[in-house]
Amino acid sequence: MPHSYETLLLDSGTPIETVSKLLGHENVKTTMIYAIVLPENKINAFEKLEKYCEKITG
After folding, report:
1. Angstrom distance (rounded) from CA 38 to CA 51
2. Fewer Cβ atoms within 10 Å of its own Cβ: the N or the C terminal residue of the chain?
3. Domain region containing 36
4. pTM of this prediction?
5. Can you give the pLDDT at residue 38?
6. Long-range contacts made by residues 15-23, C-beta under 8 angstroms, separation at least 24?
7. For residue 36, which of 17, 54, 9 has the smallest C-alpha distance?
8. Are 23 and 14 in contact (CB under 8 A)?
9. Sequence-ordered list of residues with C-beta below 8 angstroms from that of 25, at least 6 positions apart, any chain
10. Domains of the chain: total
11. For the purposes of burial, counting CB atoms within 10 Å of the CB of 10, is it exposed (0-12), middle (13-18) or buried (19 or more)?
12. In this structure, what are the phi and psi dihedrals at residue 12, rounded to the nearest 5 degrees?
């Protein structure tokens, strides 16, 4: 499968472990080599972390 397929799945929110299995990789580290972390995904991840921290700290 082309790497663009992987990128589309990751960008749509599919967990990297699922993408790894779909691509037939035995180890998720192989998938991570080709994974592109888009700026929007970085921002989204930090926003989720911030919300989680606010939730646990009150």
Report:
1. 20
2. C
3. 3-57
4. 0.57
5. 66
6. none
7. 9
8. no
9. 31
10. 1
11. buried
12. -80, -5
Q: Work out the angle between the directed axes of helices 16-23 and 3-11 (0-180°, nearest 10).
A: 150
What does the block give as tokens for 30?
């192989």
DSSP 8-state assignment for residue 1? -
Q: Which amino acid is at 24?
A: G
Residues in the chain, overall count:
58
SS (H, E, C) 3-58: HHHHHHHHHCCCCHHHHHHHHCCCCHHHHHHHCCCCHHHHHHHHHHHHHHHHHHHC
* Residue 25 pLDDT: 92
